[in-house]
Amino acid sequence: MFLEIDMGNSRIKWRFRDASNVLDKGFIETTAEFDLLAAFWLPYAGRVTVVWVASVVSDELEQKLAEWVKRIFAIDPVFARSGPNVGVVQNGYDSPDLLGVDRWLSILAAYGYTQTACIVLSLGTAATIDVIDKNGRHLGGFIAPGLSLMIRSLSSSARRISANSHEIVLTEELGRATSLAICGGCTSMLEGLVDNAVKQLRKVAGDEHFELVFTGGDAIQLMPYYPSAHLINDLVMDGLVYALQESIPGCNQ
């Protein structure tokens, strides 16, 4: 049995799976006490043989997680790292190891899923976009604040602008109240990221077909504006399979 973990800035997500099916999944807040993991993980003690981790958190938190994995499953987790390529997919960064591992794994999974040119949007704490051509070549990407960061930035820096991230619903309409104006502004900024990514891909690929792949906790809010996009909630953990399956004899996606 496999345990796959996505350690993000806001949440630690995990799933247990065998060679073909997801058996269980869950999450805790990244700021929560790690002993909460025991209640969710102990039922699988003695059954898990491989633990794969994608992490964008500090070395200290990674070490803390590794200790809990060792304590419960008596094995050491394998942390995925960004590299120059996996199969035909090529990392587009000048220094491949500096590409965030969550983005790299999302790129691998998105291309593995679409098998063609694609644009990957992850909308969580940050909004990231990565562009991949039909041959699996990563062309680069964008990083911008996610919805919550946009709203907190406005609320903390502009005295007369106040909004709660839980009240934000994306819209393209002009706002006639501050909260609605913020909604429209956030929507326009996110659409601008996607549309510019399309523009950049067109410069390289012309009118060739491409797919949109969305992931992240807030991505569902953008789906009404891009109805043909694929929403894949566990894209980072899917990427772990592409990145690390060859390291385990007999491991199948």
Automatic annotation (TrEMBL):
ATP binds at D6, M7, G8, N9, S10, R11, I12, K13, T125. It catalyses: (R)-pantothenate + ATP = (R)-4'-phosphopantothenate + ADP + H(+). Its cofactor is NH4(+); K(+). Pfam families: Pan_kinase (PF03309). It is found in: Cytoplasm. GO terms for cellular component: cytoplasm. Its EC number is 2.7.1.33. A monovalent cation. Ammonium or potassium. Keywords: ATP-binding, Coenzyme A biosynthesis, Cytoplasm, Kinase, Nucleotide-binding, Potassium, Transferase. GO terms for molecular function: ATP binding; pantothenate kinase activity. Substrate binds at Y93, G100, V101, D102, R103, T178. Pathway: Cofactor biosynthesis; coenzyme A biosynthesis; CoA from (R)-pantothenate: step 1/5. It comes from the Bacteria. Transmembrane segments: none annotated. Coiled coil: none annotated. The active site is at D102 (proton acceptor). Its main location: cytoplasm. One of its GO terms (biological process) is coenzyme A biosynthetic process. InterPro entries: ATPase_NBD, Type_III_PanK. Belongs to the type III pantothenate kinase family. Catalyzes the phosphorylation of pantothenate (Pan), the first step in CoA biosynthesis. PANTHER family: TYPE III PANTOTHENATE KINASE. Homodimer. This is Type III pantothenate kinase. It comes from Cellvibrio mixtus.
